[in-house]
Design a protein that fits this description.
single chain; alpha+beta; 7 helices; 8 strands
């Protein structure tokens, strides 16, 4: 199968594709989407509605929603923040419970727009003072979340380079 691919694709396209793969892997390796301590703000919220969990669909990722009527946007846990918490513990909270939420200051201070319709949560402290999500754990999860992509990218890149070398040797010989 790879032989057919390399027979149909020219050398320039192959080298361009390899360069894009290398740049993509390097970008995600050196620039994980972590949240800096200087960007965060801790706020107290009072739940206006019981927390809601929405399972993933083909169009929408899974999320857990926390609502406080003092903010235009809902607070949502997605990706790493959702995978790090005990969902049952949050779903057992009731209306009126107070939480300490860690979020980006820019998200907290911006109004609701079509694009910015929720506030991402990076840390949660329960009413009794127990932290169930911490910014450090979130960042650690984000740094490690691209390992699968990096591994697949590196393997694919090695296969492409081997195929390119074989094609080059075949054309010279």
């Amino acid at each position: 199968m790879l032989k057919k691919i390399f027979d149909d694709i020219g050398m320039t396209e192959t080298l361009g594709f390899i360069a894009i793969c290398v740049l993509g892997v390097l970008y995600f390796y050196f620039n994980p989407s972590i949240v800096k301590e200087s960007e965060i703000q801790i706020v107290n919220i009072k739940l206006s509605v019981k927390p809601e969990f929405s399972k993933a669909t083909t169009e929408i990722a899974a999320y857990l929603k926390l609502i406080d009527n003092d903010y235009e946007q809902n607070f949502e846990l997605k990706d790493c923040s959702l995978s790090l918490i005990n969902k049952k513990e949050l779903l057992n909270l009731d209306v009126g419970d107070n939480l300490r939420i860690t979020a980006k200051a820019s998200d907290l201070n911006s109004g609701k727009t079509y694009v910015n319709n929720y506030i991402s949560v990076y840390g949660i402290e329960l009413p009794k003072g127990r932290k169930i999500l911490d910014i450090k754990d979130y960042n650690s999860c984000k740094k490690n979340s691209w390992k699968k992509f990096k591994t697949i990218g590196v393997v694919f890149l090695v296969i492409l380079i081997i195929g390119l070398i074989k094609k080059r040797i075949k054309n010279v010989g």
